[in-house]
Amino acid sequence: MAAPKKGRRPAGGQSRPGRALALILIAMVALTGGMFWSGHTTPRLGIDLAGGTSITLKAKAEPGQESAVNETNMNTAVGIIERRVNGLGVSEAEVQTQGRENIIVNIPKGTNEKQAREQVGTTAQLYFRPVLAVAAADQPAPNPSATPSGTATPSAKPSGATADKGKDDKGKDEKSATPTATATSQGRAVSEALKAPSPTPTASSSASPKASSTPSPAPTGDAATEALQQKFATLNCLDPKQRAAVGQGVKATEPTIACGEDAPGIWSKYLLGPAEVDGKDVDDAQGVFDQQRGMWIVTMDFTGEGSKKFQKITGKLSQQADPQNRFAIVLDGDVVSAPSVRQTLSASAEISGSFTQETAQDLGNILSYGALPLSFETQSVDTVTAALGGEQLEAGLIAGAIGLGLVILYLVVYYRGLSFVAILSLGVSALLTYVIMALLGPAIGFALNLPAVCGAIVAIGITADSFIVYFERIRDEIREGRTLRPAVERAWPRARRTILVSDFVSFLAAAVLFVVTVGKVQGFAFTLGLTTLLDIVVVFLFTKPVMTLLARTRFFGNGHKWSGLDPKSLGAKPPLRRTRRPSAPAAGSVEPKEA
Q: Which of 253, 433, 472, 535 has the fewest CB atoms below 10 angstroms from its CB?
């Protein structure tokens, strides 16, 4: 058997405590620097602390379609409501399901409560509108009556092409080979669309020989038409306020303007004709992966009446040039997609383009939502004032300060010098908790509500319990007669197991509570789980290394009476000494007898 190497430390020992301390110090500096760099130096407060409006909505299914109230449809409705709330210029709203049929919308202070109730409580409006012109979000648009609309900046949204599954390739080629309209006829089509009772551009208007051969200026139209064209020219979709106001109060039978986000932060503005197809005409839609082409697409199936409407509009659009061969899918006034039409479509269609799995499935959900037999009624509207929230926060902080003070008092009285280590560890844990909460606000939308404050207060006791377990293990070793340095190392493995088991139980309880509950209770569970994880980090990377270093000092190592590790006050046994066993007598020798 190989002899043990010289200088080998006992199991559980920590040879270089400086490394662990340097690691946690670097993490603290990095997180604190990131907090100041981001500009979010305080945790985001929830509605119960900052004030605002809380709206509870209950889903209602149409008669005979009660199964429509399911998890998928409710999650889709949450996405729709989030889009509406964001349209109000609210960046810190919370929209989440509660139970099977309720949706909770928490809107911070500074939002028009009446407007918010109207926005979140109505059924989503989904329409298919023909595109008359497209322009960059912040650029003055050319007069569509005098300039080819095809010269406007095209949308970067995954438009691809729509294809009727019932058509063969020959029919598709014939449709795509249809002559396009000239610049003058395109301008006439836009102007006529804006002022005519049925404004959808027709094949005859775009391909009229008279229109193309006589380049006379387009008619100016009435005052409403000119006003809409002026709004389109001056619209800036990069301005959130303009995006929120555009298209409000416009009927489905009227032309309108709208904004669409082509990519994150990249917007385009659209001039649209009256709605030709309603969202309720969509029977089903979903994002699927096309194995043959190796790409994600969105498939649509229409109802019987919807098929007739869609066939009529696509037959007209397929005769136009870009962008007037597109139809815009408009949800609550926002263009979510604007695919072009290559051929006449009927009962089923597909939208292809540069889709990812997420964007294809999102568009499929949006299209499906227009056909969902769901509506919502407002169950309750609760207004929380900022003053009440401030009082609750103040009361919570006072309770936390009292609890922390009692813990520190107990540690000082019972552990004396060791309380210095515990207080430092609590300070490190509190700093990490605060910084991480401040960073999680803008990162994942975490809001510190009153239950979350309660979770942080409970965590004080959990963290202090870990220190007490370790300290008591060290004191037990000293009672057995060992000096402090070996006592610190021998106590650590046993204390470590106890701490890990205790924290695992706490974290498991927090995780289960977070999963099975909704609303504010999740804030308590999240904070409890976060502080439990930080407790392990602090004990392993700070408390244990600090104790290793302090064991080398004279004050703690010699067991000063104020160190909390005085062997006499702990009732320690005499120091352990190794005694040599008497050697066995040699063979043949005679042991002397006592006289």
A: 253
